Amino acid sequence: MNILVINCGSSSLKYQLIRMEDEFVLAKGSVTRIGIMGSELVHKPSNKEVYDIKTPIKTHGVAIRLVLQALFDKDHGVIESEKDIACVGHRVLHGGTKYRAAAFVNEDVKNIIKSHIELGPLHNPANLIGIDACEHNLSGVPNAAVFDTGYGTTMEPKAYLYAIPREYYDKYHVRRFGFHGTSHSYVSKRTMELVGLNRDNCKIIVCHLGNGSSISATQDGNCVDTSMGLTPLEGLPMGTRSGDLDPAILEYICRREKKSIQDMLYILNHKSGVFGLSNGLSSDFRDLRAAAERGDRVAAETLDVFAYRIIKYIGAYAAAMNGVDAITLTGGIGENATWLRPMIFDNLRYLGVKMDLEKMENTVGKEMIISAPDSKVTVSVIPTNEELAIARECKRLLEETK
Ligand code: ADP
Asked: What are the start-end ranges of the H helices in 73-204?
């Protein structure tokens, strides 16, 4: 059984075709700059040469047709036709709280995605276009949606309610949803397996640290809290997103700088985070680390803010769960930035965290427990694999409905 996983962004599309019997990636690739000058398809079949074409790609529909051609091609393809695809799994950003797990696309699912466009203006429209394009080009192949907000649906009101007039929750469903759900779900499950924790009796904190960053608390297999909120703007400082701040700052800067709320939201989403804090030096943590090592005080301070806020979230979630058995790092920064680890874990000795220095300093991009055997909390690095998590969800859905 092969499952095609599609992740449509506003101007890009990433895909993986996974053979589920052995979870082998038959091919993966991306289409970038859709609808912009310089569009490109990069197709990486397993055991074959990379196939790369630069051609105008005006819409996501055209992009999907190109991806299918590449998958079916006799030279660089890996399957013969759509008959070799059991299901297409679409990563969908915002689906509110109705769907916790993968759902076959029907009118209700499409309406849910449409009704959350306001909260996911860049992704939800692209996700819908991706679904439509697959429906048109792969007749007879079922499409399933896997929502980034799905994992957060198990939170209790005390975790998801904001302390604002309740009518805004009642009327507009203003609440914490949480994002990166497939990653938090996958990594927390892998943590249970790696550390040997029992699903019904475990407390896990997952730090997904990438260009977008979020932290989740999972107790007894269910998400009990997570740092992103109504939108992916809340929580940790990110590449360009501010994360948590005093809401009064918005009005204060608007007044001082004669800006509108829309201007401010643009700034908070695209010009803030470590990019903004470093005076526009970079949103990439590799650049910031290199600058800090050269003695750049602003870059060093920016990284301190990032690490400090992670420490605070871990403390908050350990308190919320009345303890923590395991803390896991994932995402581009979590998996690779070895220098960040002492900045965080030196401050968690009060929890009984004891690191294995050699493993902490040398584990890059692979699964590994990096705490010492006698640490009270097991710290691990687990590379996230959102595509595989989506494909597994689709497989389960197909098997359930057989
Ligand atoms: P996304 O949220 O786009 O999926 P990723 O999880 O791929 O992001 O993470 C991308 C980020 O990871 C980059 O912005 C970069 O700052 C960081 N990163 C990647 N490799 C390293 C590294 N070796 N050291 C530090 N940071 C890294």
From this structure: 107-115, 124-137, 157-160, 166-172, 181-195
Pocket of ligand 1 contains residue 363 by CB under 6 Å: no
- Tell me the CATH number for domain 197-381: 3.30.420.40
Report the C-alpha gap between 122 and 174 in whole angstroms.
19
Residue 331, ligand 1, Cβ within 6 A? yes
Rounded distance between C-alpha atoms, residue 167 and residue 277, angstroms:
35
pLDDT band at 67 (very low <50, low <70, confident <90, very high): very high
* Tokens read off for 360: 């902490």
Point out the ligand 1 atom lying closest to the alpha carbon of residue 283.
14
Mean pLDDT of 328-338: 97
Query: Is any ligand 1 atom within 6 A of the Cβ of residue 9?
Result: no
Q: What is the pLDDT of residues 392-401, one digit of tens each?
A: 999 999 999 8
The residue whose C-alpha atom lies closest to atom 12 belonging to ligand 1 is: 332
Which DSSP string corresponds to 341-388?
HHHHHGGGGGGT--B-HHHHHH--SS-EE-B-TT-SSEEEE----HHH
Strands, sheet with 87-92, edge to edge from the N-terminal-most edge strand: 51-54, 40-45, 24-32, 13-19, 2-8, 87-92, 143-147, 103-104
pLDDT at 402 over 90: no
Smallest CA-to-CA distance from 199 within 223, 175, 181, 235 is with: 223
Provide the annotated active-site residues: 148
Beta-carbon count within 10 A of 360 CB: 18
Query: How many Å lie between the centroid of ligand 1 and the Cα of residue 22?
Result: 28
Cβ–ligand 1 contact at 236 (below 6 Å): no
Class of domain 2-147: alpha beta
Mean pLDDT over each residue of the chain, to the nearest integer = 96
For the chain, domain boundaries: 2-147, 197-381
Amino acid at 76: H
Q: What is the pLDDT of residues 348-365, one digit of tens each?
A: 999 999 999 999 999 999
